[in-house]
Amino acid sequence: MTAGRAGGGSEGELAAREAAELAARSALPGAVGRAGRPAGGLGGVDSGPAADGLARPDAGDEERVVEAALRPRRLDEFVGQERVREQVSLVLESARRRGRPPDHVLLSGAPGLGKTSLAMIIAAELGTGIRITSGPALERAGDLAALVSSLSAGEVLFIDEIHRIARPAEELLYVAMEDFRVDVIVGKGPGSTAIPLEVEPFTLVGATTRSGLLTGPLRDRFGFTAHMEPYTPAELERVLTRSAGLLGVDLRPDAATEVAGRSRGTPRIANRLLRRVRDYAEVRGDGVVDRAVAQAALKVYDVDELGLDRLDREVLDALVRRFGGGPVGLSTLAVAVSEEPETVEEVAEPFLVRSGLVVRTPRGRMATPAAWRHLGLKPPGPVDVLPLDLGDAG
What we know:
This protein is an alpha/beta fold. Among the domains are: 72-228, P-loop containing nucleotide triphosphate hydrolases (Rossmann fold), CATH 3.40.50.300; 249-300, Orthogonal Bundle (Helicase, Ruva Protein, domain 3), CATH 1.10.8.60; 310-374, Winged helix-like DNA-binding domain superfamily/Winged helix DNA-binding domain (Arc Repressor Mutant, subunit A, Orthogonal Bundle). It has 15 helices and eleven strands. The protein has helices at residues 10-26, 61-69, 82-98, 115-126, 141-149, 167-179, 216-220, 233-247, 253-261, 267-284, 291-300, 310-322, 330-336, 341-354, 369-374, and strands spanning 105-109, 130-134, 156-160, 181-186, 193-198, 203-208, 224-228, 250-251, 288-289, 358-361, 364-367. The protein has a five-stranded parallel beta sheet with strand order 2-3-6-1-7, covered by helices on one side. It has a two-stranded antiparallel ribbon with strand order 4-5. It has a two-stranded parallel sheet with strand order 8-9. The chain is globular, with a radius of gyration of 24 Å. The relative contact order is 0.10.
């Protein structure tokens, strides 16, 4: 197994040992992607560690190793996404009855919701192998041609962050998806020749966090498209209960409710918080995770009752206390919290907007009354409008 990032020390080794113990406990092998790399977290293959770690959906390399062992392996083990599960089940059962590979599948949704897990489940339900790669890794048409030409009949090809695939590779993918053929160009200039190369029928599963960036021709070639929604607290409690059983954590129901409420609707964050709460319980308690222990642990890790972390609260505090609730421009707001504008826009804003704490307007970002109340402040009342003095109309 990969021991994490380059130069990874004890953290990577600890994660690898923990993943090995989990895999042995569940008696299930870990999935290995292209080039022998362990299949990672529940989202982007190439996403690095997030700004503040715990309350972010992106996973680092060490976390991917552990989270791979917590993945559900069958569709009936997959918690939440009821409609998507039903739709996928129908697609797979129909394909099995016809004796042919199912249509290509596109999964969209925020990071950490289970797109990679669902792709691996599709392969397991079909009883076939799976190849795992990512869009940024496919820079040339030759990369894709070599990959699809090596696929076995019925095998699943999973491309994470498929909206970031290079254009030459994407155009080659069109023919591979429709006609199961790739055209290999031999030579250069006027003397070049296209040699058609037949490939075995396969199923492409693409995952994207930004479906709007997919080109129309690529999107239209998927026979089934599913959008994954954030999880409810009740669904996250089921995720936590299952993960606690695999990790050997004595998690009480009230603690599961507490952690689920702070997990931002994302299973990856829920599992991450569970491991940190477990650490706190083992070091400063008797190993039992109840509500009081969960609250104390999450306070240490700067995760509040809504799941906001340090950066989220700094953005809210700047909006409310320094700029009176806004509107304020993104660049000004980023300077106020000592972060890059891209960090504020891509890391902090999505959950703040989804939670109804911040709104985007043409004039800039504004804090809602809920943001004022969350900081323990009284929202400003409506501005009094004085009647316009029109003078003596007589």
